[in-house]
């Protein structure tokens, strides 16, 4: 795997740990379809949380959140719908469940890891 | 949720509105939203502010930043809000103290490197800030001298955003730039004098110079008709040198107009200093209405007549001006201000100028003396003269015929060793005469003779019956109009002021009748 891909994988692992610590259940990771990918899907108290994880090893290219553009958020919304559709097909109802879009930034600098979490991004 | 406020001023004409700049940082994906009716150049502030904060060694929050400019109904233009937006963001982010930021007015344009650049209109903005109750202002260092003219507010000049952040308590290193500020060798006052020309440069033209002195003393508008080369332009340029220095309030007002215009005079020789000498403006005869009265895209800018505020507006070749341009002067001549209405509001600029018109006697310019060399047809002459409309000429008290100085006159002057008084000498005489008029008019809204309306003139400043007999007769015969009568009386008073008399005598009146000229000033030389 390429160095950046390794870093991305590492960041996603950290993000999953973070959610587990908060008492979330991890439903799915790196769910893909023709439209794109959702990094992390978790569940807690009747709500699915779809999370985009951005990992950086420095601030040279700006804050990780700055890489999440409005188009990316738009695409996430479509992916959420597609994911729910697929889940219905496999027989697991998502009826009555709420959804939320989150963003997680993992900043790795000098061996230290900083995690920032934004809820309900739009 | 993090909130902070800072304050700036939005100008419309000379009047400023206090603008509250609110910054909110909300936990959402990074974005920069600017709301509250900004124009295009203000919308671009987003990118300037982001870069300036970053390059000042400070942090732009990686969250959603919303800036609201309130009141939202007031249109806002230009880059002078940059600094206030930047400090509001820094305060909302907790980098600087919110109370410190909110207690001062911030004015300045930001460069991408965080440097703070000169903006136009600092003086009128600060006057508005004082009226709004502010005690402290942060302005671009380049505008500091100008800003200090505003009284009742402490001003701090800043060169860099990091410096402002440090002033407001940010923990940040800031080294003042090693560049020395430009030091003026001359005092600004000397610079203003240096540029001025002197009436002693004029050879001969004794009558014209005495007419200019009367014009200067009474503030009378002036029309000069004469052949090309007679010296009309030379004389008009020197009228401003006869006027006394501007009173402080007038100087502040005029300086404020130049400040908004972002004029070169302001930038180089300086509203760095106060404009104390009456300005002189000579628009070319192709000037548009907008160039004269003001206007332009976005926030209206002052026109040349406002730049001639408390000074001299000289229209050379007056009949060659476009008719609308000439007619646009009528309202400002009456009210002393220009009102420019826009969808976004009404801009007012002061325009107390002394009008000097110069014209040739006819299109070819040779219709003097017996008019033998004139090649114009009667129609051409009529059309030319008709350009100066009755209502405009009505406001012109002095109509002067300028004859070129002939070779014989020149030789005679040389032989006599005659030389004209200097501007400084005449200015003293004018100042004294003005003081006399001001003392007489104390308690009225006017201070110079030209401003006095006819009704007041006839009631309170009547000329003794013995003295005014001839004029009264002329009025009764109909050879002089009521308005012409008033004009003569006004001029007679100015003559008396210049001579140091308490009341005009026959000589003053006779001279006044001469200065007033004929009812039809363009048709001279054929009598």
Q: Any overview of this molecule?
A:
Chain A contains two helices and five strands; from the N terminus they run αβββαββ. With 122 residues, chain A is an alpha+beta fold. In chain A, strands 1-2-3-4-5 form a five-stranded mixed beta sheet, with helices on both faces. The radius of gyration of chain A is 15 Å and the shape is globular. Chain B is 41% helix and 17% strand. Chain B is built from 24 helices and 18 strands. In chain B, α9 (206-218) crosses α10 (232-242), α9 packs parallel to α20 and α23 (482-499) crosses α24. The model of chain B is unreliable at 182-188 and 264-271 (pLDDT under 50). The chains are: A alpha+beta (122), B alpha/beta (527).
Radius of gyration of chain B: 28 Å
Q: Which two chains touch over the largest interface?
A: A-B, 15 and 7 residues
CATH evolutionary superfamily of the largest domain in chain B: P-loop containing nucleotide triphosphate hydrolases
Output mean pLDDT of chain A. Answer: 91
Distance between the termini of chain B: 86 Å
**Helix content class of chain A:** 25-40%
Largest sheet of chain B: 5 strands, parallel
From the N-terminal CA to the C-terminal CA of chain A, the straight-line distance is 32 Å
Structural category of chain A = alpha+beta
Q: How many DSSP E strands of chain A?
A: 5
Beta-strand percentage range of chain B: 15-25%
Oligomer kind: heterodimer
Estimated structural class of chain B? alpha/beta
* CATH fold type of the largest domain in chain B: Rossmann fold
Spatial sequence of strands, sheet with the most strands of chain B: 11-14-17-10-18
Number of helices of chain B: 24
Q: Label the CATH architecture of chain A.
A: 3-Layer(aba) Sandwich
Low-confidence stretches of chain B: 182-188, 264-271
The number of helical elements of chain A comes to 2
Beta strand count of chain B? 18
Shape of chain A: globular
């Amino acid at each position: 795997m390429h160095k950046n891909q390794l870093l991305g994988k590492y960041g996603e692992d950290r993000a999953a740990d973070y959610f587990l610590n908060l008492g979330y259940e991890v439903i799915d990771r790196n769910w893909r379809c023709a439209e794109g990918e959702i990094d992390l899907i978790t569940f807690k108290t009747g709500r699915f949380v779809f999370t985009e994880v951005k990992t950086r090893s420095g601030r040279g290219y700006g804050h990780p959140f700055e890489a999440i553009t409005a188009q990316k958020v738009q695409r996430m919304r479509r992916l959420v719908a597609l994911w729910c559709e697929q889940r219905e097909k496999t027989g697991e109802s998502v009826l009555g469940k709420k959804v939320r879009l989150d963003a997680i930034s993992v900043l790795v600098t000098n061996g230290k890891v900083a995690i920032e979490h934004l809820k309900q991004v739009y | 949720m993090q909130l902070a406020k800072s304050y700036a001023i939005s100008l419309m004409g000379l009047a400023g509105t206090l603008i509250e700049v609110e910054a909110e940082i909300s936990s959402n994906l990074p974005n920069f939203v600017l709301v509250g009716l900004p124009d295009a150049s203000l919308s671009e502030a987003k990118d300037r502010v982001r870069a300036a904060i970053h390059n000042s060694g400070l942090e732009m929050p990686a969250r959603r930043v919303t800036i609201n400019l309130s009141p939202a109904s007031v249109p806002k233009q230009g880059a002078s809000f940059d600094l206030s937006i930047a400090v509001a963001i820094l305060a909302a982010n907790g980098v600087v103290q919110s109370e410190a930021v909110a207690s001062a007015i911030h004015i300045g344009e930001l460069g991408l490197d965080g440097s703070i650049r000169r903006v136009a209109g600092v003086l009128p903005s600060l006057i508005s800030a004082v009226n709004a109750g502010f005690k402290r202002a942060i302005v671009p260092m380049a505008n500091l001298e100008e800003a200090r003219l505003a009284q009742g507010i402490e001003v701090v000049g800043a060169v860099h955003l990091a410096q402002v952040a440090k002033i407001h308590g940010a923990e940040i290193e800031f080294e003042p730039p090693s560049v020395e500020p430009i030091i003026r060798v001359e005092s600004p006052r000397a610079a203003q004098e240096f540029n001025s020309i002197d009436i002693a440069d004029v050879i001969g033209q004794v009558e014209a110079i005495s007419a200019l002195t009367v014009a200067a003393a009474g503030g009378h508008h002036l029309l000069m008709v004469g052949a090309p080369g007679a010296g009309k332009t030379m004389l008009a340029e020197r009228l401003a040198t006869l006027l006394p220095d501007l009173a402080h309030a007038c100087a502040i007002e005029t300086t404020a107009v130049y400040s908004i215009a972002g004029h070169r005079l302001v930038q180089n020789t300086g509203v760095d200093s106060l404009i104390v000498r009456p300005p002189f403006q000579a628009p070319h005869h192709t000037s548009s209405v907008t160039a004269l009265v003001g206007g332009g895209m976005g926030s209206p800018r002052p026109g040349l007549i406002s730049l001639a505020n408390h000074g001299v507006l000289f229209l050379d070749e007056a009949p060659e001006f476009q008719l609308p341009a000439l007619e646009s002067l009528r309202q400002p001549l009456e009210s002393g201000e220009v009102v420019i209405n826009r969808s976004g509001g009404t801009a007012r600029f002061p325009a107390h100028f002394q009008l000097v018109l110069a014209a040739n006697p006819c299109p070819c310019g040779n219709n003097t003396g017996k008019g033998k060399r004139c090649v114009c047809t009667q129609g051409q002459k009529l059309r030319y003269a008709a350009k100066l409309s009755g209502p405009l000429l009505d406001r012109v008290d002095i109509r002067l015929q300028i004859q070129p100085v002939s070779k014989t006159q020149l030789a005679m002057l040389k032989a006599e060793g005659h030389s004209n008084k200097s501007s400084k000498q005449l200015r003293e005489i004018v100042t004294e005469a003005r003081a006399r008029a001001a003392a007489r008019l104390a308690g009225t809204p006017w201070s110079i003779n030209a401003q006095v309306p006819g009704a007041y003139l006839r009631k309170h400043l009547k000329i003794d019956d013995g003295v005014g007999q001839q004029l009264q007769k002329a009025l009764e015969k109909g050879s002089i109009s009521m308005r012409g009568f008033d004009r003569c009386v006004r001029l007679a008073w100015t003559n008396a002021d210049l001579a140091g008399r308490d009341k005009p005598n026959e000589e003053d009146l006779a001279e006044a009748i001469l200065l007033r000229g004929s009812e039809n000033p363009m048709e001279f030389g054929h009598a």
